[in-house]
Amino acid sequence: DVDDGDTVTDFMAQERERGITIQSAAVTFDWKGYRVNLIDTPGHVDFTLEVERCLRVLDGAVAVFDASAGVEAQTLTVWRQADKHKIPRICFLNKMDKTGASFKYAVESIREKLKAKPLLLQLPLGEGKAFKGVVDVVSKEKLLWNRPSEDGKDFERKPLLETSDAELLKETTEARNDLIEQVADLDDEFADLVLGEFSENFDLLPTEKLQAAIHRVTLAQTAVPVLCGSALKNKGVQPLLDAITMYLPSPEERNYEFLQWYKGELCALAFKVLHDKQRGPLVFMRIYSGMIKPQSAIYNINGNCTERVSRLLLPFADQHIEIPSLTAGNIALTVGLKHTATGDTIASSKSSALAAARRAGREGEKQHRQNNEA
To answer: In the prediction, which pLDDT does 149 show?
Structure first.
């Protein structure tokens, strides 16, 4: 908890004192059968470089907004960084229980200041002190955090009924129809489906089809799904994690051009180096293809040198778990690399790096020839 000063990813004394993030920290966790590699980056503009080097290796991002302030100056900076690296993202309107929180205002500010198309996947039940849960627009259910349990683990998921919530159901149905129209404008496959069998009645449109279409639109970065909640009371966090696994891309869905040249061999990027008193330099790596194991020799393309990974760790903020191997799509922490710096590309051996360079060269020549012919 930030207020208690015991946040897992803000483990430096300076961060705990001030209640802010200064350096980015990585955490790996599982959620409903998915493995999530999360990097918590700073929000303050003074530490913007940390955001830059982490965004580069991530597949998707969650932009967290203060619901009472909407888009702030720093939000713009981070948003532009994500645009530059072409990162699909989800918006989370936090602090819905804060006095002065306004869902409408925050969504408007996303639309106007960030020039993005917000897709409202949730509506809040109450604002400020009265905030008690959210309505899931896609499945027309309400999620209530009634119980006084402080950690927000227990919540009820109920379908909206004509009898008990007539007014809310009407509002949600309108919001769902708007959402369907918005998505249909942006996704042709979904538009055909809507105009075909469901043109008379949007209510019959299956939830899975709508979710799949929102997923495609998010990947194409033509719109951003918007969710809301309160992280302090852990209200709305579970639906946010579900949305991350449902709408943000998996590593296979991001097509990185350079991967075709490595043909499944190791290709990783060192994106951050930390200095540990006991272990020496700890190198954070994003693995793009292949696999990494401890005690194996790897080749640093930028430094033109071969190094040995003595230990391989799974990052968990300042606690690390030693592991026997790690595959593509993950973030690893390696011990024992002496000459690797931020921004270095890592391959399994010099010959595999040269082979990749030859393939890339051939591809380049082919492109060049085609351009000349054109």
So the answer is: 65
